[in-house]
Amino acid sequence: MTEFAARVEQVSISGIREVFEAASEDAINLGIGQPDFPTPDHARRGAIEAIEAERTDAYTSNKGTRSLREAIANKYDRDYEIDVDPADIIATSGGSEALHLVLEAHVDPGQEVIFPDPGFVSYDALTRIAGGTPKPVGLREDLTLDPAAVEEAITDETAVFVVNSPANPTGAVQSEEDMREFARIADEHDVLCLTDEVYEHIVFDGEHRSPFEFAQTDNVVVVSACSKTYSMTGWRLGWVVASNRRIERMLRVHQYAQACASAPAQYAAEAAITGPQEPVREMVDAFEERRDVVVDGLVDAGLEVPTPSGAFYVMPKVPDGWCEEVLDRDVIVVPGDAFGANGEGYARLSYATGMDELKEALEIIDDATRAVR
Ligand SMILES: Cc1ncc(COP(=O)(O)O)c(C=O)c1O
């Protein structure tokens, strides 16, 4: 009888989903991984106009439309003064597919992939699906990833190390100095650095920098997406930027697994990136205001809270039984160990939820925290 592939048998459905399924219908949901804002009108119109003009009925080029890839390349120039050739971009079905392409194209069975722990759940799962061996690395006290810890974890078997800033689940933003170090490590050890920048525009303190800016070799690959920046998680549009030889390898996977990203989504993404950026600024301002309210509320409840500088998550240290107590009171939070063994003793809260609900949730959390102390 045909058995299931061992690679896939090792992967389980995300612990986050289990929390959602256990929750009641009118619970306040602080478990959400997507902005609670609408997709900007001009992005929607980009798709609608392309559909009406009959430009979305056929496959696009495998890498994506030339005009979308030009828009993405111009974005890197506009935002970071990085020169990117549109030929060195593949438009993907969200950041998720982009992560998959990088790992499929660069990881051989048994090779190791280093990633932050706690970290985004896909790094472990996609490493296993690629036949690789996950090598989670713990974080600093402020929940950033220490380049020295990455360097120490590198062995002859290491194929890739993952950097994610701003980070899910911590909200931590890596400093420029760290990003320079990640680039040096990729260069000196001749190991690929996958930099996951899907939250690149959601930064409150400091600024987003990328190891891609600093590397001397082509050992840095960038993954990003419209999903979080433009509140377009449902559109499924991301991309990967890399040297041409790497893009050509990733294209082999993308071409056969996906053919091309959805055409309407490509037109929406192009409009989002080239149109007015005010909706992004407004959303980031709202997240920053909520971040301050949530951090203050958690500190007032007596919790230790590393201040997140980006994304829309906060990861307080919590006492034993805290998540259960909060979940019992109908506030959904995600236990930190859903993001790796080092997440134990923490919880992830998302503030992609309206201010009134957040304030109500903070009062409930205050009661729950007293109850477990
Ligand atoms: C760190 C990180 N990378 C990648 C993704 C995937 O994003 P997308 O929805 O574009 O596939 C997510 C989604 O939550 C994420 O948090």
Would you kindly provide a written description of the structure presented here, covering whatever features stand out?
- Pfam families: Aminotran_1_2.
- Homodimer.
- GO terms for molecular function: pyridoxal phosphate binding; transaminase activity.
- InterPro entries: Aminotransferase_I/II_large, AspAT/PAT-like, PyrdxlP-dep_Trfase, PyrdxlP-dep_Trfase_major, PyrdxlP-dep_Trfase_small.
- This is Aspartate aminotransferase.
- There is one protein chain.
- The protein is α/β, with parallel strands linked by helices.
- The chain has two domains: 6-39 and 278-372, Aspartate Aminotransferase, domain 1, CATH 3.90.1150.10; 41-274, Type I PLP-dependent aspartate aminotransferase-like (Major domain) (Aspartate Aminotransferase, domain 2, 3-Layer(aba) Sandwich).
- The protein is 43% helix and 13% strand.
- It contains 14 helices and twelve strands.
- It has helices spanning 6-9, 15-22, 41-52, 66-80, 94-106, 122-129, 147-153, 176-189, 211-214, 244-257, 263-274, 278-300, 322-328, 355-372, and strands at residues 28-29, 89-92, 112-116, 133-137, 158-164, 192-196, 220-225, 238-241, 313-314, 331-332, 334-335, 347-350.
- It starts with 5 loop residues before the first helix and ends with a helix.
- The model has no long low-confidence stretch (mean pLDDT 96).
- The structure holds pyridoxal-5'-phosphate.
- Pyridoxal-5'-phosphate is lined by residues 33, 94-96, 120, 164, 168, 196, 198, 225, 227, 233, 238.
